[in-house]
Design goal:
Layout (H helix, E strand, L loop, with lengths): L27 H13 L1 H12 L10 E2 L7 E2 L4 E2 L1 H14 L3 E6 L5 E5 H17 L7 E5 L4 H13 L2 E4 L6 H11 L3 E5 L1 E4 L2 E4 L1 H8 L8 E5 L13 E3 H7 L9 E2 L5 E5 L7 E5 L2 H14 L8 E4 L6 H14 L2 E5 L10 H8 L4 E4 L1 H10 L2 H4 L8 E5 L5 H11 L6 E4 L10 E2 L14 E2 L5 E4 L9 E7 L9 E2 L3 H8 L8 E9 L5 E6 L3 E4 L2 E4 H9 L4 E11 L3 E10 L6 H11 L8 E5 L12 H8 L15 H7 L5
Parallel strand pairs: 4-17, 6-7, 6-8, 8-11, 11-12, 16-17, 16-18, 18-19, 19-20, 31-32
Antiparallel strand pairs: 1-2, 3-13, 4-5, 9-10, 14-15, 15-25, 21-22, 23-24, 24-26, 26-27, 28-29, 30-31
The structure holds 5'-O-[(S)-ethoxy(hydroxy)phosphoryl]adenosine (WTA).
């Protein structure tokens, strides 16, 4: 496993921390002081922060409950409501007229939703859900474009205690069906469609298709008419969002929910089997969403305009598009559309027009914008920008430097945030205005977060590479895998007997203690910042009637970080690569389409029949095949693969 961490970056540039007056952490002294508080009283410090930063309906007396590891619970006897913390609290504090969400559509339409308006809409939506039979404890699947109604739907679930599961709008109907069935959802919320590169991407037909088989728990489909698509309508099942909201009461009391109530489920890929439903709690999650907004971005809700470009279907969209900014009472920007539409200047025009001050995006997007050229950002006034963040994949130093120079004008700190769906919020962050930055390093753990690098026996590694682990439970950690407690234990805890949370990433530390993430050590690919399991793509390929066997590996790609390479053995030769790509898109979604397909006669296997993926990785990376191939069943297979053209 650890031997996969082969490349060691040679990057020794260091940029002094920028000066930020009144910043949350304005020196390393501030950082160390906060870390010391946690060292002196770990659980008590978390509890103090939870009391100060959240509004409670019932005060808690327990901080960490570790009586049944690794099923940890935080603040378990307290009660609160996430929607109340994100909305009512601010309205009651006199911020009702502050803009909560600025939405911009691809065609340039703009909507400003104030906190007061958002609260009213959330209450109406919550009442509609009640009227459709949704109760606290039920699951609601949300399959939506990037529109304010998506945030309204999520918050309405939170208000009544329904657990939401947002499914990325570009996932196929069969991926959607799997998620609906796994969560046994009672209600699905969708839209007719969304904007995509000047056209419209229909969504409802995918839901209709998903619901056409199985999904017996779904009673209703609530549809937001947004994109003007013609949609079929199933009487009795399908309901119109706008007309039902208009008829419902604008008041709905937020119910007090236990701290550990599951706020949401979000499916993510692992190295085995189908995607797993990561479960997040109410209090612990919300606390960290708020603290990391304030700490990692030095976010000032009364001044900053925050733009996180992630889709709401991913964890970044949950924590930093919706819950983080709103629990702080700030303004969040939501853009529906492609960042390069109609041209590569779009992102920078939005920054200028909306006076965006904190901008948060993925290295893949940065690389695509670099490719488009400096003329685009240079045409816009980017002086409102104060802090620049990145997330989702390692950022290569060239992209980092461009972001720093061309976008931030060497004024704005670059905050490279390392975290995961499972962690709920940031873990490793170069705190802006406190820490020096190094291109490509996520610097140090946030106060309260205890991480280590260990070898395969669990021994601590002080220099060199190893596995990144978290050594203490923290409030926003995942609470489990939906419906599969054994998988939770096995995936994240078993390797070191429950001692550490295993992130699945390799990392190393430099002489200053800075962390450098080296990528996944399991069979998970990171394609354009999106996590995809190689097994998932293999199963999708094998589900095609003409495919006998398939093996999927990643190779480095300048733009996407990693590209998908598939080795496919066919039962019949009439099928071509294009058909297979389309098939994978239909099974999982377009993001999972293999970039390279090799139609081969056989796969390299060990004598015990295991596919030798590392060998395939060497082949696609065009590396010398250094691995010992003596265990190979049939060496001719390799010769044949090497002679096979990529399609
Ligand atoms: C990778 C996204 C390097 C990592 C928030 C992790 C990163 C996976 C970074 C989680 C970063 C995320 N530098 N790699 N700053 N951030 N990753 O669950 O491999 O979609 O395990 O969460 O993305 O992906 P996920």
């Amino acid at each position: 496993m650890v031997d996969m961490i082969e490349s060691v970056l040679h990057e020794d540039r260091v940029f002094k921390a920028a000066v930020g007056e009144g910043a949350c952490f304005s020196s390393m002294g501030d950082y160390h002081a906060m870390c010391r508080r946690f060292e002196e009283d770990y659980e008590g410090t978390w509890a103090d922060l939870a009391r100060t930063h959240l509004r409670w309906r019932e005060a808690f007396t327990q901080d960490l409950d570790d009586s049944n590891p690794p099923f940890y619970r935080w603040f378990a006897d307290g009660a609160l409501n996430v929607a109340e913390n994100c909305l009512d609290r601010h309205v009651q504090a006199g911020l009702g007229e502050r803009t909560a969400i600025v939405w911009e559509g691809e065609q340039g339409e703009v909507r400003h939703l104030t906190y007061a308006y958002l609260l009213e809409q959330v209450c109406r939506a919550a009442n509609v859900m009640h009227s459709l039979g949704v109760e606290a404890g039920d699951r609601v699947v949300i399959y939506m474009p990037m529109i304010p109604e998506t945030a309204i739907a999520m918050l309405a679930c939170a208000r009544i205690g329904a657990t939401h599961s947002v499914v990325f709008g570009a996932f196929s109907s069969s991926s959607l069906r799997d998620r609906i069935e796994d969560a046994a959802a009672r209600l699905v919320i969708t839209a007719d469609g969304g904007a995509r590169r000047g056209g419209v991407h229909a969504l409802k037909p995918f839901v209709d298709e998903a619901l056409s088989e199985g999904c017996h728990t779904v009673e209703h489909l609530l549809v937001v008419k947004h994109a003007g698509c013609d949609v079929s309508w199933k009487a009795g099942r399908d309901c119109d969002w706008h007309s039902l909201l208009a008829e419902s009461s604008p008041e709905c009391a937020a119910i007090a929910l236990p701290s550990e109530h599951p706020l949401f489920i979000l499916y993510t890929s692992g190295s085995t089997g189908k995607p797993k439903g990561i479960v997040h709690s109410t209090a612990g999650y919300l606390l960290w969403a708020r603290l990391t907004m304030l700490w990692s971005f030095d976010y000032r809700p009364d001044q900053d305009v925050f733009w996180c470009t992630a889709d709401v279907g991913w964890i970044t969209g949950h924590t930093y598009l919706i819950y983080g900014p709103l629990v702080c009472g700030g303004t969040t920007v939501m853009y529906e559309g492609v960042p390069t539409y109609p041209d590569a200047g779009r992102v920078w025009q939005i920054c200028e027009r909306l006076s965006v001050s904190v901008f948060y995006t993925a290295p893949t997007a940065i690389r695509a914008l670099i490719k488009a050229g400096d003329v685009w950002p240079n045409r816009s006034d980017l002086s409102s920008l104060r802090v620049l963040g990145t997330v989702g994949e390692p950022i290569n130093p060239e992209a980092w430097m461009w972001y720093y120079r061309v976008i931030g004008k060497e004024r704005c700190p670059i905050v490279d945030t390392w975290w995961q769906t499972e962690t709920g919020g940031h873990m490793l962050v170069p705190l802006p205005f406190a820490m020096a930055t190094k291109p490509g390093s996520a610097a140090l753990p946030l106060p309260g977060i205890q991480v280590e690098i260990v070898d395969e026996e669990g021994g601590k590694v002080s220099h060199g590479g190893g596995l990144l682990v978290v050594t203490k439970p923290w409030p926003s950690m995942l609470r489990g895998v939906w419906g599969d407690p054994a998988r939770y234990v096995e995936t994240y805890w078993n390797l070191f007997d429950g001692q550490y949370y295993i992130a699945g990433d390799g990392a190393r530390r430099d002489g200053d203690g800075y962390f450098w993430i080296m990528g996944r050590v399991d069979d998970v690919l990171n394609v354009s910042g999106h996590r995809l399991g190689t097994m998932e793509i293999e199963s999708a390929l094998v589900s095609h009637h003409a495919v006998a066997e398939a093996a999927v590996v990643g190779r480095a790609d300048d733009l996407k970080g990693e590209a998908i390479c598939a080795f496919v053995v066919l039962k019949e030769s009439r099928v071509d690569a294009l058909t297979l790509r389309k098939h994978v898109a239909a099974e999982i979604g377009p993001i999972a389409k293999p970039d390279d397909i090799y139609l081969v006669e056989g796969l390299p296997k060990t004598r015990s029949g295991k596919i030798m993926r590392r060998l395939l990785r060497d082949i696609v990376m065009k590396r010398d095949i250094v691995q010992d191939v003596s265990t190979l069943e049939d060496r001719a297979v390799i010769e044949h693969i090497l002679a096979t053209p990529v399609q």
